[in-house]
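Key idea: predict the complex, not the pieces.
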Amino acid sequence: SAVISQKPSRDICQRGTSLTIQCQVDSQVTMMFWYRQQPGQSLTLIATANQGSEATYESGFVIDKFPISRPNLTFSTLTVSNMSPEDSSIYLCSVAQGAYGYTFGSGTRLTVV
Amino acid sequence: KNEVEQSPQNLTAQEGEFITINCSYSVGISALHWLQQHPGGGIVSLFMLSSGKKKHGRLIATINIQEKHSSLHITASHPRDSAVYICAAPSSGSARQLTFGSGTQLTVLP
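Result:
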């Protein structure tokens, strides 16, 4: 199965700043997803990252706040913009593999102060 | 959209105990996933199953398609099994997006 390298693993950021999270996959994958997990909550899909086109965002998430890049089939970034303490969460990337399988990144634990 | 419910939310066990975590979903699916989340946030896929039962070491996952229910069992639990266990099902019939259960925080005491 694919191996995902997600960076950074954690960060503490000042409010009003932005953080870019990277996911590098060791093989080409078609579908890549970005999730947010707020404290004590389940994972929520932010968007599906599409190669060569704009990401598809879920209800409640907008491109200005969470811009996503997918320059090729092995790499994607998620930026959390103009951060506030409410953005403190774990952010995860995931790729779909085969008929039904998934692989997840190691997560980025973000704290906004 | 698939609704995924998981129980219990929290579970504390003594080392050696048999553990069961339950998951139910509302819409018929192709495969259900059991995941393990470590304190740092990273997620490891434990099982993907569409019928019957799968076993990996001390972990066993079962699924009943007709009843839309799955269970994760841990035999001879150990403190290193302490983690959050999450079940996930496809959000809809054709999408590759997942809907996640709320997770079960398992603590195994020595």
